[in-house]
Design goal:
Distance between the termini: 64 Å
Structural class: mainly alpha
Helix content: 55-70%
Number of domains: 2
Largest sheet: 3 strands, antiparallel
């Protein structure tokens, strides 16, 4: 007689902290739509405020590019993200709740930029909750990169702009003096016998510093290098941006002395913003090359 064969295999039951990686474990399309609508309703006013600041503020015109760059980075990792296990979801809801509380407090005190950081934290918490910690860890930079799109309060900008104005005038004036020019530095004004240049807030270098820090963070992410070198590259964006802005002021001052104020304050004054970016970008690449951070990641 042939007896029935017993199935002695033990099936592992999924725990509350694990989720299967098959299609049944993935969040449904309609759940994602519902969550997107809820986030849009919660942060709708903030999103409108940010877009207005990107459009109107001279400091955050790059804000339109940041979400596009983050989306591209996620797109480049799409295959890798599909292969990650969906597990360890428990920290998702606490992160979302904490971010929403920060948003409520910021809204209560009518301060917008903390709500921008709360929105980013909400997105990160939702990634943990819906796809698990391995996926959240993999997308930490593309999501965290969104902080560069959040406009800071005008008060904070003014606090940094004035010291940078003084520093830019001092450095450019000393550089002009070293090249043989007769200059007198008075606060943010550089006097020459035939031309006086006022380092305004727009020429303080803060705008280039904000944009250059975002560029340095992105460059540090896409190159193959130890974390320590990536941090050095990011920190280097500060002196690089300041030196690039000093070069802009010096060139403007030189043109004003040699070709007249109309030349310095005409087309070149508008074009010099591009010049600062070119100087800064070249400086970052030189720093990266000096650190050996030159090879791009395979998934970029």
């Amino acid at each position: 007689m042939v007896g029935d064969r017993m199935d002695t295999s033990v099936r592992k039951q999924p725990s509350g902290n694990d989720r299967q990686t098959d299609s049944a474990g993935a969040p449904s399309f309609w759940l994602l739509v519902a969550i997107a609508v809820a986030v849009g309703l919660a942060y709708g006013y903030l999103l409108i405020w940010m877009v207005e600041r990107w459009y109107k503020s001279e400091y955050y015109g790059h804000g339109f590019l940041i979400p596009l760059i983050s989306a591209y980075l996620l797109y480049r990792q799409r295959q890798h993200l599909k292969d990650l296990p969906q597990e360890n979801f428990r920290w998702g809801p606490p992160v979302v709740v904490g971010a929403l509380l920060l948003h409520v407090v910021a809204t209560w005190f009518d301060v917008h930029f903390p709500s921008g950081f709360a929105l980013i934290a909400t997105v990160f918490g939702l990634v943990i909750w819906l796809w698990g910690w391995p996926t959240a860890r993999a997308v930490a930079f593309p999501v965290g990169f969104l902080v560069f799109m959040v406009p800071l309060a005008r008060l904070l900008i003014d606090q940094f702009a004035q010291p940078l104005q003084l520093l830019g005038a001092n450095l450019a004036g000393r550089l002009a003096y070293a090249t043989g020019a007769e200059v007198i530095i008075e606060g943010t004004t550089i006097h020459t016998p035939i031309y006086n240049f006022e380092v305004a807030i727009a020429c303080s270098g803060l705008k280039s510093l904000i944009a250059m820090s975002a560029l340095a963070a992105l460059l540090g992410y896409i190159v193959v290098a130890p974390l320590s070198k990536k941090i050095v590259l990011f920190i280097a964006s500060i002196p690089v941006a300041l030196l690039a802005n000093t070069a802009r002021i010096f060139v403007t001052l030189t043109l004003g002395q040699t070709l007249g104020p109309a030349t310095a304050e005409g087309f070149f004054h508008s074009f010099s913003g591009i010049l600062v970016f070119a100087f800064g970008l070249a400086g970052l690449f030189l720093v990266g090359k000096g650190l050996g951070c030159w090879q791009l990641r395979d998934d970029m």
